[in-house]
Amino acid sequence: MSLPGQHPLGESGLHPERTALAWRRLALVLLGLAIASTRLLWPRLDAWALVPTLAIAVVAALLLAGSHRRYLAQVRTVTTTAADGRLPLFAAIAATVIAVLWLVVVATGR
Questions:
Q1: Positive or negative, the Cα torsion across 97, 14, 16, 75?
Q2: Helices 50-77 and 16-45: crossing angle, nearest 10°?
Q3: In degrees rounded to 5, what are phi and psi of residue 42?
């Protein structure tokens, strides 16, 4: 039970709604990147341009699913315990892999 004037999910700085929206925005940005990568890479790679597009789209779908699962878990527990760190780790690794792949494409001039 929360005190008057207190947020019902606690004052730990974890506001599940805003956090979930931020992850959803990231997934939408990745989908936009997937569409842009197809458009930019098609003249150089032809049908192979769909490979990075599908990879980025899968990462976006996993982020979206993971953020929804994380949001539901935070709302259900209604505690101030530390959140699961697997989703941010996955996002960081995926962003690094995407950046390295783009650098390889730019460096090879393909």
A1: positive
A2: 170
A3: -55, -45
Contact 49, 37 (CB under 8 A): yes
Q: Which two tokens stand for residue 18?
A: 């805003």
Whole-model pTM? 0.61
Number of C-beta neighbours around residue 45 at 10 A: 16
CA 40 remoteness from chain centre: 22
CA distance 65 to 82: 20
Could you read off the pLDDT tens digit of each residue along the chain, which spans 110 residues? 455 555 555 555 557 788 888 989 999 999 999 999 899 989 988 888 899 899 999 999 999 999 888 888 877 776 545 567 787 888 889 888 888 888 888 888 76
Instruction: Give the dihedral of Cα atoms 55, 57, 59, 64; nearest 10 deg.
Output: -170
The answer to whether 9 and 15 are in contact (CB under 8 A) is yes
